[in-house]
Specification:
Elements (H helix, E strand, L loop, with lengths): L1 H25 L3 H27 L2 H32 L16 E2 L4 E2 L17
Antiparallel strand pairs: 1-2
Length: 131
């Protein structure tokens, strides 16, 4: 029974890896390329690792495969965020069809901190009544 499941997982994994590669080639700017590559490649690698775990049917192999999947799920979004943030700081251009850049004027380029126009969620601005 492991044979068809292994083949299915390998086909799904390979499909998402191809989609990730096409996303890197076809998307017009850094941010869209990173989005396509991180989501699809994480899913593809996860499916391939699950195929390995099912095929070998060994506790040691399965444990390592699951640990690697968890590691990918935890680190890939963080790495993509940091790369995107660094790209934004160094001035990577957005695609021409971008309608609005919501971060324009919000980052302090010296400290690399995001300035907020609105109070943080859950916080309330209190004003002292004039006496």
């Amino acid at each position: 029974m492991a044979g068809p499941i292994t083949v299915l997982l390998m086909i799904v994994g390979a499909f998402f890896m191809v989609v990730a590669g096409l996303g890197v080639l076809r998307m017009p700017d850094l941010f869209l390329r990173m989005s396509a590559s991180t989501k699809a490649s994480t899913l593809g690698a996860g499916a391939l690792l699950l195929a390995v775990a099912v095929h070998f049917d060994n506790v040691g192999v399965t444990t390592r495969a699951v640990a690697t999947i968890v590691f990918l799920l935890l680190t890939t979004p963080i790495a993509a965020h940091l790369l995107g943030r660094a790209g934004y700081f160094v001035g990577v251009r957005l695609v021409e069809t971008t309608v609005i850049d919501e971060l324009a004027g919000q980052y302090d380029l010296r400290s690399h901190r995001l300035r907020s126009k609105q109070p943080a969620a859950g916080s309330q601005e209190t004003s002292q009544p004039d006496a």
